[in-house]
Design brief:
CATH architecture of the largest domain: 3-Layer(aba) Sandwich
Number of domains: 2
Shape: elongated
Number of strands: 9
Bound molecules: ligand BV8
CATH class of the largest domain: Alpha Beta
Length: about 260
């Protein structure tokens, strides 16, 4: 389901940086895209920095998105994710997500490595998506990672797994390892890509924050798309100032 009017038509003017990025991408057959919260901002999902709603204003995600935070107050963390899930469920992919999905169909290899847990890349039609930090619409048990799905047998907050453990969202919290298979696939893609697109991430959270350096070391070009410079910008061959919803369609349209 894609937002009405979310056609991947170019929205951004062709700027000098965009033209440079097009030169780098034209002919590139192996493309990796890594995305952060900024990719979903124009779908109405707040980033970690400018979350408008009360929970995010009053709680530090790094305190809540941890095993200790869940142990301290499982009901609070469960409700925090339930509020986010309800908001994310209303969000739809925008023209930038659609542009990436259409581009994938034309490229030789095209992999999206996303830090986002909202599922919007897949919803837009992207087939090769690695959800590095999990998915807010999936659940598992806290002690043994047993998968769980709604409707839950128990009505408590949080509900219990059949094994007796508490249920939690199936996302990767700070201090938790990412799935080895995801990391292996990500590093393999980064080691063999012609271009890495870095879209909508502040470049602060590892291991994703290290992807630009990995790709660069393997000889790839790095193109960053963000309204603001980030710690990754000095690594990038081209920094394209702007939002994902307008820059990605404009870029993809030039590469046909
Ligand atoms: C791990 C899921 C092994 C849950 C998240 C010291 C040094 C290095 C590393 C560490 C360290 N100490 C601890 C670590 C490891 C830690 C880490 O990196 N900490 C940081 C803070 C230093 N990492 C981990 O724990 C990871 N696991 O490494 O395991 C280990 C373990 C322990 C110790 C060492 C190693 C697990 C990290 C995953 C955490 N889970 N999310 C949930 O979402 O609730 S993190 C969460 O926050 C996101 O997934 C994302 O990764 C991060 C937010 O970052 P962004 O996505 O970049 O979003 P942000 O809001 O910051 O920025 C938005 C950007 O968009 C901005 O730049 C803005 O300008 C731009 N933007 C705005 N509008 C637009 C736009 N861009 C485009 N278009 C627009 N319209």
């Amino acid at each position: 389901m894609v937002a009405a009017g979310a056609q991947a038509e170019p929205g951004a003017p062709v700027t000098n940086e965009l033209a440079q990025a097009v030169e780098m991408l034209r002919g590139a057959q192996r493309i990796v895209v890594t995305t952060g919260a900024g990719m979903s901002k124009e779908s109405g999902i707040p980033t970690f920095r400018d979350a408008p709603n009360a929970l995010w204003a009053n709680y530090d995600p790094q305190a809540l998105a941890t095993r200790d935070g869940f142990r301290r107050d499982p009901a609070l963390v469960w409700r925090w994710y339930a509020d986010r899930r309800a908001m994310i469920a209303q969000a739809q992919p925008h023209a930038g997500h659609v542009a990436l999905a259409q581009w994938e169909a034309r490229a030789h290899t095209f992999v999206v490595l996303t830090q986002n847990i909202d599922g919007l890349h897949a919803a837009a039609g992207s087939k090769h998506v690695i959800e590095l930090h999990g998915n807010i619409f999936r659940y598992k048990c806290f002690d043994r990672d047993h998968p769980a799905r709604e409707p839950f047998a128990s009505g408590e907050t949080p509900p219990h797994c059949a094994c007796g453990s508490l249920l939690r969202p199936d996302v990767v919290w700070f201090g938790e390892m990412l799935q080895p298979a995801h990391l292996d696939a990500a590093y393999h893609a980064l080691a063999h890509c012609d271009v890495l697109l870095v879209v909508g991430t502040s470049g602060l959270v590892y291991p994703a924050a290290g992807f630009a350096a990995e790709a660069k070391a393997a000889g790839a070009h790095v193109v960053e798309i963000n309204p603001e410079p980030t710690p990754l910008s000095e690594l990038a061959d081209v920094f394209v100032p702007g939002g994902a919803m307008s820059v990605l369609p404009a870029l993809a349209a030039q590469i046909r």
